[in-house]
Amino acid sequence: MKKDTIDELFNKLQDQLDYAEPASGHQQRFLEKLNESKGVVTLETKKKNNWLLFLSVAASLAILLTVGLSQFKTASSIEEKVAEISPEASKTQFYFANLIEEQVKELNSEKSPETEKIINDTMVQLKKLQLNYTQMEQDLLNGGNSRLILSAMITNFQTRIDLLNEVMIQIENIKSIKKANDENFTI
Question: Is residue 164 helix, strand or coil?
């Protein structure tokens, strides 16, 4: 008997070979049969409940929304409590805050390479003064000496306004010096 080469074998079996893909789940059934023959026991994985995932996401969103709203209410309630203690302080705060906001906008409109450093330093000082003011509001709510604290709050606003006015004067000086130097410069 003569041995066939592999090429001859494939040529003879060409019409008999199966090229179709196996049915879906074939690999899983094959592995199960293989494990049964070896005596291996497999544990089935539990199906994940989609509704449980949806419920956990909804609960997380509800918690985040509740925390966010409570933070928002706390911030506004400090101002409301200050207004209850001293309605004049609330009116004064509104007036000064608007005035300071207008001056800050004007200050930012004057920003140039020559004035950038002084404006940035001023903004840092304004933030520090705002933090001090917030602390004074908290002290007022905690039952401190209301006359003294209210006076300090007004002084804080006045200090901010004075700072902004002084910086605006310095910016005007910088601009006039620059203009004078530009006029005296000859080519």
Answer: helix
Distance CA 29, CA 34 (A): 9
CA distance 9 to 5: 6
* Axis-axis angle for helices 116-141, 50-85 (nearest 10): 80
Within the chain, what is the greatest distance between any pair of CA atoms? 119
Which pTM value belongs to this model? 0.53
Residue 64 has which token pair?
């985040």
Check: CB of residue 80 under 8 Å from CB of residue 137. Answer: no
Q: Is residue 163 within 8 Å of 125, Cβ to Cβ?
A: yes
Q: What is the mean pLDDT of each run of 10 residues along the chain (187 residues)?
A: 72 75 81 76 58 78 81 62 71 83 88 87 92 86 80 90 92 86 66
117 by Cβ neighbours in 10 Å (0-12 / 13-18 / 19+) ranks as exposed
